[in-house]
Amino acid sequence: MTKQRPILGLDLDNSVFWEAQPFLDATNDQFNASVPLHEYSENHAKMWGVSPTVANKRTEWWHASGHIADLPLLPDAYEVLGTIHETHDIVPLTSRRFDHRKFTYLALAKTGLDAFLEPPIFTGFYRSGAEGKVHATKVDILQAMGAEGHLDDMLKHLGDLSVERPIARPAHPNGNVVDLAAYRRRMARRPVHGITMGNYHWNQADRLPDKVVRANNWLAALDHYKQHFAEAA
Ligand SMILES: [Mg+2]
Questions:
Q1: Which of 15, 143, 157, 204 could bridge 197 with an S-S bond, Cβ 3.0-4.6 Å?
Q2: Could you give the C-alpha distances from 41 to 63, 176, 190, in angstroms and in order?
Q3: pLDDT confidence of 173, banded at 50, 70, 90?
């Protein structure tokens, strides 16, 4: 019987593709804003100082504009993912919406990453009722797949129990209402071995979640991979 290859989850934006600055460049230009990188935030309404409805429309514009098909790869990501692919199935998990899959597939094909990666899973945090929605946290999906680990720039996707609003939030009209206490209980039972990618202002922490290490770049991620995952393969 063939032994099943171990699985690693992989976030895309700001983990594999550099998204933050291209996103700001395009949206500053389009919406006459001037948000600098150090004010970049996942909470777009707060970042722009606009209503959640306006923020959603702007974010929708960004994804539909096609820019995400042309985002640059972080240095060494391609080579390192090629190495990891020798022993692991790598499953991209993205909070991008399913209806923006076309540009996601295009980016993976343009960069050649589709040779190393399984088809991406669109987790659907930010939309309900959409075709192909998964509507679960990344940790839920990783556990269901039996993944050995995950790489993500966001600590909340690596089991950070200190995050206040971990899934969709009231700012998103179609979002889940989150029972934070239940979420924390669930996460506490489901530790994910993780690598947090990058040393960004949005993933600073006094203490990383259990079983999570930081990689400032992809060569450091490769070292962690060899140390934590390669032997199990
Ligand atoms: Mg990300």
A1: 15
A2: 16, 20, 27
A3: very low
